[in-house]
Design a protein that fits this description.
about 240 residues, globular, 7-stranded mixed beta sheet, about 20% helix, 14 strands, alpha/beta, binds zinc ion
């Protein structure tokens, strides 16, 4: 499968780093992980549009991870070609309430020409569009989940999180771990820094680690990263 890094940023507006989001492309499916501000347009830059996406996974409901969800749904109804293929929306605790809230504010996002499945998935595995999707709760918001997608290979997304034994278990020997590392050095509650992340990586032993959700602290950080770490950049593409 192929991983496209759509954004590696945070709530802080940045030209270089859009809000953290990723597209996973397999033979059978396209999975969008998080839909923060301007992610619908980021898809276009990569040659995809909303109707190509089969599954959306929300790691949590913070605005920098969900703001463009309404844009996405609106485009499914009123884009160049109205959407006909089914869409699955996966998230943690409170997903249905969150989705209904969006529909209350934006009635125009209710699916008109396609089927939408809203699937709350926590501490569980499900086969979706030919992929095994597994989620665990992580430490950030009550609804926060980390997600592992598995076909022949696997990619695991931490979402926003603090130190999490659940994430260590989920990421066990995963091929690629896409993990928040908000700050290189300072430690902020609900997020990771390099030292805290490294202790988890030693246990989980992922083959490759892409750092994302990067605050401006990273811009003038003088350190050097070594394997398995790679500093995430918007637009990165790789085979997993
Ligand atoms: Zn965030
Ligand atoms: Zn967050």
């Amino acid at each position: 499968m192929k991983l496209l890094v759509l954004g590696t940023g945070t709530a802080i507006p940045s030209i270089e780093r859009g809000s953290s989001a990723y597209l996973v492309v397999t033979r059978g499916a396209k999975v969008l992980v998080d839909v923060g501000p301007a992610v619908v347009r980021r898809l276009l830059e990569k040659g995809y549009e909303v109707n190509d996406v089969d599954v959306i996974i929300l790691t949590h409901f913070h605005v920098d991870h969900t703001a463009d969800l309404s844009t996405f749904f609106f485009a499914c109804n009123y884009g160049r070609v109205p959407r006909t293929k089914p869409l699955t929306l996966i998230g943690g605790k409170g997903l249905t309430r969150f989705y209904r809230g969006l529909r209350a504010v934006y009635p125009w996002i209710a699916p008109k020409t396609y089927d939408l499945t809203v699937l709350r998935l926590v501490n569980d595995s499900r086969k979706v569009a030919g992929l095994t999707v597994t989620t665990v709760p992580v430490k950030h918001n009550p609804e926060s989940i980390a997600v592992r997608l598995e076909e022949k290979s696997s990619v695991t997304f931490s979402g926003d999180t603090d130190v999490s034994p659940n994430l260590v278990r989920l990421a066990d020997k995963t091929d690629t771990l896409v993990v928040e590392c908000a700050f290189p050095e300072r430690k902020v509650k609900g997020h990771l820094n390099l030292a805290a992340l490294d202790r988890m990586v030693q246990k989980a032993q992922p083959r490759r680690v892409i750092l994302t959700h990067l605050y401006p602290d990273w811009d003038d950080w003088p350190g050097v990263l070594h394997a398995p770490y790679l500093l995430g950049e918007d637009g990165m593409e790789m085979e997993v």
